[in-house]
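Hi team,

Filling in the usual template for the complex we talked about on Friday. All components are listed, including any nucleic acid strands or ligand strings, so the model treats them as one assembly.

SUBMITTER: L.P.
PURPOSE: interface mapping
COMPONENTS: two
RESIDUES: 224
SEQUENCES:
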Amino acid sequence: SYVLSQPPSVSVAPGQTARISCGGDNIGLKSVHWYQQKPGQAPVLVVYDDSDRPSGIPERFSGSNSGDPATLTISRVEAGDEADYYCQVWDSSSDHYVFGPGTKVTVL
Amino acid sequence: QAQLVQSGAEVGKPGASVKVSCKASEYTFNNYFIHWVRQAPGQGLEWVGSIKPPRGGTNYAQKFRGRVIMTSDTSTTTVYMELTSLRSDDTAVFYCARELGFPDSWGQGTLVTVSS
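RESULT (copied from the run log):
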């Protein structure tokens, strides 16, 4: 089965840039989606199809996927960005959704 | 904006079953898959499976096959997930989510606690 990897944690100072990686076999051939989850809340989609943003998501959130790994970038980090972030793809070989293990972003 | 409202917390005994509902509104119910995702306490997101109204075609994760049953009711625009043969490690929050090529709208989550 397809496996995604993410760093367990990323720490960043306010105003700086956070980069969260998502690795997987030939991930550049897949569409990667990213979710933000704050404690006690449902996940929220922040980037879809590698680099598109849903309406209402700040431009500070951007994504790229030109190969292993895919990356979610949060520019000008704010305290409110502190959350867990998950990448997700659809594995065509198994017809299953796959989530990464998640990355906890801490704002220093 | 699609809305998904889930039923309240459930408690089930080991070996028993629980059934969680997810009522959809503000979009055409029959046009989209609904997925279920599990999150154990302090853990990550785990895909359980999906269902496509109105015919109810399902796709379950290998881990849950034989224990999960997903159904849909177009008259009430509600999707159900029943988890059988409950174990202690099934204690988790279960989310439903609408698929737009990816899960774009999520329910608020339902806590299922397995306890004797």
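MY TAKE: Chain B has a mean pLDDT of 95. The CA atoms of residues 93 and 111 of chain B lie 4 Å apart.

Thanks, L.
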